[in-house]
Design a protein that fits this description.
Distance between the termini of chain B: 55 Å
Number of strands of chain A: 0
Largest interface: A-B, 18 and 30 residues
Helix content of chain B: over 70%
Helix content of chain A: over 70%
Oligomer: heterodimer
Order of helices and strands of chain A: H
Number of helices of chain B: 21
Largest sheet of chain B: none
Number of helices of chain A: 1
Radius of gyration of chain B: 23 Å
Shape of chain B: globular
Strand content of chain B: under 5%
Chain lengths: 46, 509
């Protein structure tokens, strides 16, 4: 039998890890958008 | 299910399919060379590699299938899936940096580099068998899952889902595959995470959940013996180790470090996130009366359909099949119909994303291992890009035809997993951890013996003593390697066995 307290901790870790990964993906997406924008602007300047 | 809810779910699925088509068209604009098409220009950052690796892992089996298994078997079903994720951590930490550092295109390239041309051809045959089988199975799964969840006829669901998958894979290549994977990953992680949190709060914690569920739900050996658990864990561990869809995730990363932490990170995230979440979902499905009545209704429907079609179907088999509705029904009773519709579309897209990965890998194998190597070694990059696109289209269409006539997904998957581990896993382990040119003959012999042993064990002897062909074939390959090694280690390497270390440069990245 797996202890209930262990399952509770694992569930908390599961939710926390999903939030961290989603935040990292959002940060990566925003970074890409910013880079694309900067690239387009420099192309227009040329 | 109410008519309005079903309409919302169908509308969400239609919208989701349109988004996938749009992603494909957008990705096509970035494809300028065969390297862009098959390897995304080797420019994918680790967090995106993580998302696409995890999305490839979360197919129909790890979502709908796993919730259904946990409902029936209990926590043991969730725990053994850790084997899938552990092999990803192992691959990421130890194999991915080596594969990425060599600037390879296919698994066949790696085998030629380490063990010579004959090993390459054996590896290519294995990759083709694995990918063709997996592609046909995933195409069939698109039809089956859509039919079970939304009631769309199998043929129509197969045609619509496959057309969208083939379209975005053909026009956008691996870039489209990765982008659709990320979208599907985000929706599934939000959906599965939110569902597990909401259901846990509704039940009032694990203690209260255990009081409602049967005692066996929380016990490891309530349904399966320790021996069975061990052999299933081993089969899960070996069955998907180093398979082409994960090898490609190593090749597309920006550099060695991005490959390492992308693939290993996918495994670490999945082992932390998925088993406990699917355990909560599966246990909640077991205790929820609405889910149980949906399973009973599905079972009765399956039994009536089997009688009408004169197909033999036992009550137990119908019950097992009917449990596939557990996850979608749980989503429907937990969320608002609109978000439930998005989740259900993402579940169907999860199956599509497993199919698109296989399709993309198969087209790369045809372009690199077959066309460029055997048909036109001097072909221009533009022509190779065209070959990859046409291969994606033709192979996708062929897989639909296969899935139309042969829809038994489980049988196809068991068949391909039985032959992957005996032939490919041991050479990979030796290449990465214990490589020396004097071991080339022994490795090639082990590949042949592993394949023959698995075939004889499965078809000749009918897999006696509950030992699977994968386990038997792997053991036979290991014995063959150990026996052949002292006999062949001093033999000179003929051209069929000579490693091609002059054509690749490990430090060229």
């Amino acid at each position: 039998m797996i202890p209930v307290s262990l399952l509770t901790v694992l569930h908390f870790v599961s939710l926390a890890s999903s939030l961290v990964i989603l935040a990292l993906l959002a940060w990566q997406y925003l970074r890409k958008v910013r880079l694309d924008k900067a690239r387009n602007n420099s192309r227009e300047d040329l | 299910m109410q008519f309005a809810d079903r309409t919302i779910e169908l509308a969400m699925l239609a919208a989701y399919l349109v988004v996938l088509l749009w992603i494909g068209i957008r990705a096509a604009r970035q494809v300028k060379s065969s390297g862009d098409y098959t390897l995304a220009g080797r420019s994918v950052p680790w967090i995106v590699v993580l998302a696409t690796t995890a999305a490839t892992m979360i197919g129909g089996g790890a979502s709908v299938g796993m919730v259904s298994q946990v409902s029936q078997i209990g926590i043991a079903a969730a725990v053994i899936t850790c084997a899938w994720h552990l092999q990803l951590i192992f691959t990421g930490l130890f194999v991915a940096p080596k594969l990425r550092g060599l600037n390879l295109i296919t698994v066949g390239d790696y085998f030629q580099l380490k063990f010579g041309p004959l090993a390459r051809e054996l590896a290519v045959v294995n990759c083709v068998v694995f990918l063709v089988g997996a592609l046909a199975a995933q195409m069939a799964a698109i039809g089956m899952v859509t039919n079970t969840i939304l009631g769309v006829p199998y043929g129509a669901a197969l045609l619509i889902g496959a057309t969208v998958t083939i379209f975005y894979s053909t026009v956008g290549g691996i870039r489209a595959v990765v982008s659709t994977d990320v979208l599907q990953f985000v929706i599934l992680v939000i959906g599965i995470g939110a569902a597990s949190a909401i259901l846990m709060s509704q039940h009032g914690g694990f203690e209260a959940m255990r009081a409602v569920a049967s005692e066996g739900q929380f016990q490891m050996t309530s349904h399966w013996s320790a021996t069975k658990l061990f052999s299933l864990f081993f089969a899960f561990l070996l069955g998907e180790t180093f398979v082409p869809p994960y090898a490609v995730r190593c090749f597309i990363a920006k550099d060695k470090q991005h490959a390492k932490w992308g693939v290993a990170g996918g495994g670490i995230f999945l082992v932390l996130f998925l088993p406990i979440a699917t355990f909560i979902l599966g246990t909640a499905a077991r205790t929820n009366p609405e889910v149980q009545s949906a399973i009973e209704a599905e079972k009765q429907q399956l039994l009536v359909a089997a009688v009408d079609a004169r197909i033999p179907l036992t009550e137990e088999a119908a019950q097992q099949q009917a449990y596939q509705v557990a996850f979608p029904t749980l989503v429907r009773v937990t969320f608002h119909p609109v978000f439930a519709g998005v989740m259900i579309a993402a579940i169907i897209a999860a199956v599509m994303s497993s199919a698109d990965s296989c399709l993309s890998c198969l087209a790369t194998v045809v372009m690199e291992d077959v066309y460029r190597r055997h048909v036109a070694p001097g072909a221009s990059d533009k022509f190779l890009l065209r070959v990859a696109q046409v291969s994606t289209l033709m192979l996708g269409a062929a897989a639909v035809v296969g899935a139309w006539f042969f829809s038994n997904v489980a049988d196809i998957l068991v068949f391909i997993y039985d032959f992957w581990a005996p032939t490919m896993v041991l050479p990979f382990i030796i290449a990465v951890f214990w490589y020396h040119k004097s071991r080339v003959y022994a490795v090639v012999v082990s590949m042949i013996v592993g394949a023959v042993a698995a075939i004889v064990w499965r078809f000749g002897l009918g897999s006696p003593s509950d030992v699977g062909p994968a386990l038997f074939g792997f053991a036979a390959a290991l014995v063959a390697f150990l026996v052949t090694l002292p006999l062949t280690s001093r033999l000179p390497l003929g051209w069929l066995f000579r490693p091609s270390d002059d054509i690749f440069d490990e430090e060229s990245v």
